[in-house]
Amino acid sequence: MEMSQINFTIDNDNYHFTFSKFLVEPCLRFKHFDKDEEKYYPDLVGYFSADCELYDKWNGCLAIEVVFTNNCYSKK
After folding, report:
1. Superkingdom, according to UniProt (predicted)?
2. Which of 5, 23, 54, 59 is an S-S bond match for 45, by CB 3.0 to 4.6 Å?
């Protein structure tokens, strides 16, 4: 959470994220048309600047898992 800038490699592409704020262990809710609401509690959600090319695709935020403790489902 102290790192305001993080570089990620996704497949063979490198992305630079500049975060303006973080939320710690927020509750994210996903509503499916054919299922009940699902809740997901990532370790952090970072909000990043529009200069990253993934800003529009990911709505300017990125869920971050810091420590792996449980198997996760595909949405996570």
Report:
1. Bacteria
2. 23
